[in-house]
Design brief:
Layout lengths: L1 H23 L8 H7 L12 E4 L3 H16 L4 E5 L2 H7 L5 E4 L6 H4 L5 E5 L5 H9 L3 E7 L6 H6 L1 H7 L5 E4 L2 H9 L5 E3 L22 E7 L3 H12 L3 E6 L5 H11 L7 E3 H4 L6 E3 L6 H5 L4 E4 L13 H4 L4 E4 L7 H4 L2 E2 L2 E2 L5 H8 L6 E2 L5 H8 L1
Parallel strand pairs: 1-2, 1-4, 2-3, 4-5, 5-6, 6-7, 8-9, 8-12, 9-11, 10-11, 12-13, 13-15
Antiparallel strand pairs: 14-16
Helix pairs in contact: 3-4, 6-8, 10-16
Length: 383
């Protein structure tokens, strides 16, 4: 049987690569996720059973699910969450529910407990995740599902695998008609269009103090090299405070060093949020996880990281647009194409053009979301 062969192969992969995986776990980025996912360290069994089980890969997916999880919690429903990244895990902590890293596929046989329903977001297409769920009589949904222009050709080459996987997915709710057609081409049967839940407007989690004596510019979800161009662009623009929020916590010290090196030629005041808990300095490094949406609620202009170099694919513009910021991003936004269509007044520029984009933003209306998601309709899907 296919599932036996697949299980044996993935188990062999785990055994063969265990030494390399152990070495990777020494890196700050993976020190929590790898031991939990590949060796079940402090993660021997799924914490609860009989719950609505939500799975999302990373920060953006977990944040998108939060309003629905909070609504289910308010109704007294049992919730469990799995993710595969530290950023997703740290974000989900605020929900105060059963939370785990998702184990590597063959380990799911011993780890998974019976649940009410498994809701997987976007494109987390792990064969044994769905197969093992069905052996436990768990209903399975792929929710807000998408297959990007860039990834779809790769999925087509593996159609033999995904056709078998979709036998264990009860219903797929796709983001768009294009996504629906792509899932059907891969062998899925019941595929319905229900929209992208990331278009649901974000809400601030807490109230933060932000001085409004100057314009507030945020470099959001930044990756390596983003900060160099954001710092230069903001300096040449010559206005406002700058708040830098790196995407990954393991880069906090690296970015702080970069800011200090930048400031050797300038005379700005600098601050690390973890040390001062305020935004009074000219340049503030936010070196804590989970504050970005609250900062969007107080900022004026957002420079979205991850889109100024090919490879990352950009980050979610809906979150800053939810608070009527003026938004600037790079041209490599291929992972956000479906969202961009619904955001007005979004500036897409080359990284060398950030100073002129900041100047231009003064003459632009604030960005906003042109299409709202029906919260109740999406909630009915997962119920």
């Amino acid at each position: 049987m296919f599932q036996i062969t697949y299980t044996l192969i993935t188990s062999l992969v785990l055994l063969l690569f265990a030494p390399i995986i152990l070495l990777l776990s020494l890196r700050e980025k993976y020190k929590n996720s790898i031991p939990s996912r590949f060796f079940l360290f402090k993660n021997l069994r799924q914490p609860v059973e009989g719950s609505y089980w939500f799975h999302g890969c990373s920060l953006g997916e977990i944040n998108a699910m939060k309003p629905f999880i909070e609504e289910l919690q308010s109704r007294g429903e049992s919730i469990s969450i799995t993710t595969t990244t530290d950023t997703g895990f740290n974000s989900a902590k605020s929900l105060k529910t059963a939370l785990s890293f998702l184990p590597f596929e063959p380990l799911l046989y011993i780890w998974t407990r019976p649940q009410k329903r498994l809701i997987v977001l976007e494109a987390e297409l792990w064969f044994l995740l769905f197969y093992v769920a069905k052996t436990k009589n768990i209903e399975t949904l792929l929710w807000s599902a998408r297959l990007s222009d860039r990834s779809f050709p790769r999925y087509k080459k593996m159609r033999w695998l995904y056709k078998r996987l979709f036998q264990y997915v009860d219903i797929i709710y796709a983001q768009s008609e294009i996504d629906r057609e792509r899932f059907l081409q891969l062998g899925a049967k019941d595929v319905r269009v229900a929209g992208n839940i990331k278009l649901l407007k974000s809400k601030a989690n807490r109230e933060i103090e932000m001085p409004k004596d100057r314009l507030v510019v945020v470099g959001a979800s930044t990756h390596k090299d983003d900060e160099v161009y954001i710092l230069d662009g903001w300096h040449n623009y010559g206005k406002g405070r700058l708040i830098l929020v790196p995407r990954h916590k393991e880069r906090f010290n690296e970015v702080w060093t970069l800011i200090q090196e930048f400031n050797r030629e300038h005379r700005y005041t600098l601050s690390r949020y973890s040390e001062n808990k305020n935004f009074l300095a000219d340049i503030t490094l936010v070196d804590e996880i989970g504050l970005l949406v609250d900062i969007y609620n107080k900022s004026d202009v957002v420079i979205l990281g991850g889109g100024f170099y090919d490879g990352i694919g950009g980050h979610n513009p809906v979150e800053p647009a939810s608070f009527n910021n003026k938004i600037i991003s790079g041209k490599y936004m291929f992972n956000q194409k479906e969202l961009i269509k619904y955001i007005s007044n979004l500036q897409i520029v080359d990284r060398e053009e950030l100073a002129s984009a900041l100047n231009n933003s003064e003459n632009l209306p604030y960005s906003k979301i042109e299409q709202d998601i029906d919260f109740q309709k999406e909630l009915e899907i997962i119920l």
